[in-house]
Automatic annotation (TrEMBL):
Protein species of origin: Pegethrix bostrychoides GSE-TBD4-15B
Positions of TPR repeats: 11-44, 45-78, 79-112
Matches recorded under PANTHER family: CELLULOSE SYNTHASE OPERON PROTEIN C, TPR REPEAT-CONTAINING PROTEIN MJ0798
Top-level division of the source organism's lineage: Bacteria
Protein name: Tetratricopeptide repeat protein
Length: 129
């Protein structure tokens, strides 16, 4: 544990609290913690991404999508936000847009999880066609 872990004046402190709330499925509390991180640093894209994850946990998909969009607007090479955006779009069956998000993530970081998620879109499209 570092001093930063105990310093509520740092956005990382609140981001960590938000992640802990997400793990406990306390999504409203998580959003509030991520909002604290963002209030301290409006350009802290990790908190924007994590806030969107918490909103997905609440099934607030439109707000989550706008929040992922904010994260990638702040840091266009943040591959995790592009991937999470793709997951959300796949969840709501917006497969073309999901593929575009996965492609952005893969172009930045060719993570096998990203490649697998993109490949699953083809299966989902066949199942729900």
């Amino acid at each position: 544990m570092t001093a930063l872990d105990l310093n509520p004046t740092q956005p990382e402190f609140w981001d960590g609290k938000g992640c802990a709330h997400c793990e406990a499925k306390q999504f409203a509390e998580a959003v509030a913690a991520f909002d604290q991180a963002i209030a301290l640093d409006p350009n802290y894209c990790r908190a924007w991404n994590n806030r969107a994850n918490a909103l997905c946990g609440q099934k607030k998909y439109a707000e989550a999508l706008a929040t992922y969009d904010r994260a990638v607007a702040i840091q266009p090479d943040y591959h995790q936000a592009w991937f999470n955006r793709g997951l959300l779009l796949a969840e709501i069956m917006a497969y073309g847009n999901a593929i575009e998000s996965y492609d952005r993530a893969i172009a930045i970081q060719p993570d096998p999880r990203y490649l697998h998620a993109k490949a699953e879109i083809g299966l989902k499209q066949k199942l729900f066609a």
